[in-house]
Amino acid sequence: MMLDNIVTAIEALPDVSAARRAALDALLRLGLPGPHEEQWKYTDLSVLQTLAAEDIAPNPDTHEFPADYADGLDALNAALAGGQQHRPIDGQVRLDTGRHGRYHLTVDGNAELRLEDAGDTRFATCFITLALAPGARLRLTRVLTASEAAHRITRIAISVAENARVDIVTIDLDARFARHDLAVALDAPGATAHLYGLYAPAGATHLDHHVRVDHRAAHCISRGYFRGLAFDRACAVFNGRIMVHPHAQKTDSELRIANLLLSRKAQINAKPELEIYADDVKCAHGATFGRLDPTALFYLRTRGVPEAAARALLTYSFANEIFQHIHPPELRSEITAKFLTRMDGGAGITELT
């Protein structure tokens, strides 16, 4: 079993701390979530059982372990990452999420955080908490373009203080298996969050994306726009929830999810949720599913565009609604080029700006 492999690998390390052993005990006690739980209905972690624990992080004295764990995955990450690192961020910062890591980051001014995973490690977990001070600004970009053998579990939890703003773009393209949880809490009046995301699994891959936005105070704004594409025999899962708590009056929130199935064997399970406990709010949510528009395909074909190129162009146009929010432009061009190469007929398409 995977848990046995992890326990054995960590216990073989020199000088295993008592806190790390406590994380292992919590992992064994809590276990891992399974398909019987609503949030894991479409994602089975048994796929991880054959993986060995690799690249286990050291356990420096400066890393901290929590007293309690939210679930078995929380304990698993702490045990593999060797505790949590604390650091403020300012300006432009990059982190590699293709290895085990656990971070608590604080933002007092303006910052840009880029989370990148283009690695070839088979298994990695990365858990990050972010705290934005009043008036702070954060631009967060997370990109997953790992190897076809990669298995990833990431969690990002962000608290947004008064008049602070976070802009988030998440791009999930490549990994054999990935689960990404993103939670944003708007904790004080004037807090704002804009979220954009694209998930586009291909081959026989499985990408699971869960987003939750909590409106905990009055006069907060959130926007969530996500697009999904599934190629070949791939499976995509998206769950988005907006929670408007009591006293969060004057909430302004919107969540939109659009999906394209590009193969008869591909699957997308998408579910938007809206839960409201305040009476003076403006909220909307919805999800759509479809295939490429045959009328648009016919129009392009009548103008001499080959069928493969026409399909690639329409697919790219759909995804570009999210790509256009990627900064800086160099990164946008890099991600766009990688996306286009996976499609027959995509090589001749020029990036839309």
UniProtKB/TrEMBL annotation:
- Please report the organism this UniProt entry assigns to the protein: Fontimonas thermophila
Protein name stated in the entry: Fe-S cluster assembly protein SufD
In this protein, which residues make up the domain named SUF system FeS cluster assembly SufBD core? 100-318
Output the superkingdom of the source species. Bacteria
Query: Which InterPro entries does this entry report, sorted A to Z?
Result: Fe-S_cluster_assembly_SufBD (IPR055346), SUF_FeS_clus_asmbl_SufBD_core (IPR000825), SUF_FeS_clus_asmbl_SufBD_sf (IPR037284)
Q: Name one GO biological process term.
A: iron-sulfur cluster assembly
Signal peptide start-end: none
